[in-house]
Structure formats: structure tokens, C-alpha cells
Amino acid sequence: MAIIPVYGRFVGDFTAHLVAVDTEDTIDEVATKIAAHAVGRRLPRQPGATGLEVSVEGRTLAPASRLKDFSPRPLQWLDVRWKW
Amino acid sequence: MQFIALAADAMAAGDVGFSNLLSSIQTDEARHAQQGFPTLEVLMKHDPERAQRVLDVSFWRSFRLFQAMTGPAMDYYTPLDRRTMSFKEFMLEWVVDQHERTLRDYGLKRPWYWDTFMQSLEHGHHALHLGMWFWRPTLFWKPSAGVSKAERRWLNDKYPSWEDSWGVLWDEIINNVNHGAMAQTLPETLPALCNLTQLPIGTHLDRHHLECITSEHDGRTYYFDSEISKWCFEQEPERYAGHLNVVDRFVAGMIQPADLSGVLQWMGLTNDVMGDDAVDYSWARDYLPDAQLVG
After folding, report:
1. Can you name the CATH fold of A3-83?
2. How much is the pLDDT for B292?
3. Helix or strand or coil: residue B286?
4. B262-281, pLDDT tens digit by residue?
5. Distance (Å, rounded) from C-alpha B244 to C-alpha B84?
6. N or C: which end of chain B has fewer CB within 10 A?
């Protein structure tokens, strides 16, 4: 268990944010932490979406896997988007 | 030029002291500007490639700061009835046209990223304004949102893509203000920052062009707001590599406590001086349904 800072960008927002995540977090939990800085602040919620997905360098991460499974580096850039 | 205009405004407002101060600064800046042309002439004579490279780096870095300081002031802070031109129009008339003529006179080419620079005139300062307003507790002044319905019409007229790029983001903020969800209109963390310009990543164009741009140097990953900033960095990495931006300092544990309150404390911003909306959010009432206005 270790806190690690990442850059999280919710696709559609105008900037990325510094977000503290835990290496034990599931990818779903990471997505929620990143989305909290954009959705409901500058981006509207999307009731029709089935969830969120996270990608790193174009690769989509399995929602139930844990952050530590792909060994992110400090300030790793993560993209979060709606899943339909 | 900006100082002359500011001095004139200060004098018109009756602030003789501030007007004199600005005029004095202007004479100093004009002297610096006079030194630039002979220096450029010497450099062109002996090393034209270096002259072009220096120009390309300094133009972008200067522009990005100018865009941050002047764009929001012209297009959002200036009262609508006092606006004579948009920031983009100002840049096209007073910088682009004149700059191109000067470059030709000295045998220099336009910077290689000219198309992106022109695109940035359409978007960058809107991003910077939204960022400054949203992170208003980190400012030492009270920013005007500048997005009442009338101001929004003006923005859409001057910038045809404004609604799609920026209006939708402001709509969510307006909705939160009008529902009293003020916590949702305030930041809880820092934006990603460029290791060259120090400005938030995503602020040189609009949200549709935001991408992760990095460069590795001596085992460290550097982040940039654009391919242009990355290029500038890579011309002289040793010049910039040791610097820590605010996010880097935060991550290194140099800012405590490690949250936004620690950042504000580190910046010396207390409740009595930190920024808040300039007009107490009155502009957002424009968007309330008529029934609520009557009530």
C-alpha cells in the first residue's frame, strides 16, 4: 500500500489534475478519484454511461485490476473516459 | 504599448500616481526593446541559425505569458461596453502583422510552429481564463467570470468555436453556482503543469487538443503543454532541467500539508487576500429560469 501521485485527465475536460491514488486501488477506484475533479465540476454527469474506463498510453486497463499491476511511475498520465 | 494604454486608463480614472508609475515603467521597457534590434542584427550577421532558434524559443515563451496576462483581461475582465477589440483581433493587428514585417526586415523566418500559434490565438487564453477563475483561491485578485449571456454572445461572435470548446464547461459551473453547490466550483487539487511555461497543461489550445507530451532527460520525465514547449526544452535541456514547478515541489514534499490548503499557505494566500468571483457570482443569475428571478 503506497500513495502515488498521478496526472489524471478526464477526456473532454480542458486540463489534467494531480491526483493522489493508492497502488492497491482497483482501476475502477482510480477512475472515480480522477473523475471527481472534472465530472460535476466542468463536465456534466452522463446517466446513460455504463461506467468509466482508464487507459494509459492508449492501452485500456482492466477495471478490476489494481494500479500496482502495471507499475505506474510518479506523475504517470492516465486518461479516464465514459464507458457506453 | 500596454503600459501606455494602462497609464492612460489610470489617468482617466484620476489616479495620477499610478499613471506616472506606469509611464516610468514604459520608458524603461522601451529602452530594453531598443536593445533587441541591434543585438539581433549582430547575431544574424554571425550566426543566423542561432538567431532563428533564439527567436523561435523566446517568441513562444513570451507569447504564452502575454496570453495568460492579457487575454483574460481583454476578453473577460473589460466591461463589455468598453471593449474595442478582442484579444485575437489585437494580436493579429498589433503583433502578428508587425512581427512578420520585422522578421522579414532582419532576414528571419516565421517560427516553425506558426500555424499552432495562430490556432492558439483562438483558444489558449480562454483555457487560461477558465483555469484562473476555477483556481481563483490561488490568485491575489478577484477574477471576473465574464460569461453573462451578453458577454457570451460577444465571445461567440468573436470566437466561433467558443461554445463547443468552453461554453459547455461554463454551463456546468453555472449550474453549480445556481444550485448553491459552491464546493463543486472550487478546486481540490492542482492542475498538471508544463515544465517549460509553468502554465497548466491544456491551455495552449482547447479541450479537443489536450494530449500528454513528455520528454525524458537524465532519468526524469518532463511534461509539456505542447510540442512547441517540448521542442524549446530540448534545444537546451540543461537550462530548464533542474527547475521544479509547483506540482514537482508538491510531490517532492516541499509543500506541507500536502493538500490545496498547504499550497495556498505556501503561496502566502490567506482568506482575506485570496481571489473570489469579482461580482459575487451575480452574472450566473442570467441563467436562472424567469420564475426564479421573479421569486
Report:
1. Ubiquitin-like (UB roll) (3.10.20)
2. 64
3. helix
4. 999 999 999 999 999 999 99
5. 40
6. C
Does residue A42 sit at the B interface (CB-CB below 8 Å)?
Answer: yes
Model pLDDT for residues B139-150, shown as the tens digit of each residue: 999 999 999 999
A45 close contact with B: CB closer than 8 A: no
DSSP one-letter code for A19: E
User: How far B184 CA sits from the closest chain A CA (Å)?
Assistant: 5
Query: For every one of its 84 residues, what pLDDT tens digit does chain A have, with 9 covering 90 and above?
Result: 799 999 999 999 999 999 999 999 999 999 999 999 999 999 999 999 999 999 999 999 999 999 999 989 999 999 999 999
Intra-chain end-to-end CA distance of chain B, in Å: 48
Q: Which among B188, B191, B221 has CB closest to A16? A: B191
Q: Does residue B222 fall inside a structural domain?
A: yes
Q: Are residues B15 and B96 in the same domain?
A: no
**pLDDT score, position B293:** 57
Nearest to residue A56, comparing CAs of A1, A5, A8? A8
Q: Which residues on B lie below 8 Å from A32 (Cβ)?
A: none
Residues in B whose CB is inside 8 Å of some CB of A read 127, 130-131, 134, 166, 168-169, 171-173, 175-176, 184-185, 187-192, 200-203, 206-207, 210, 212, 214, 221, 223, 247, 250-251
Global pTM reads: 0.92
Evaluate whether residue B147 is within a structural domain: yes
CATH number of the domain residue B178 falls in: 1.10.620.20
**What number of C-beta contacts closer than 8 Å exist between A and B?**
89
- Residue B135 DSSP SS3: coil
- Considering all CA atoms of chain B, what is the largest pairwise distance in Å, rounded to the nearest integer? 73
Contact criterion met (CB < 8 Å) for B192 and A41: no
Range of the domain at B202: 47-272
Beta carbons of A15 and B210 less than 8 Å apart? yes
CB atoms A77 and B214 under 8 Å: yes
Contact flag B185-A19 (C-beta cutoff 8 Å): no
pLDDT band at B295 (very low <50, low <70, confident <90, very high): very low
As beta bridge partners, residue A56 has: A59
B8 vs B18: CA distance, rounded Å: 10
The ipTM estimated for the assembled molecules is 0.96
Q: How far apart are CA B13 and CA B23, in angstroms?
A: 15
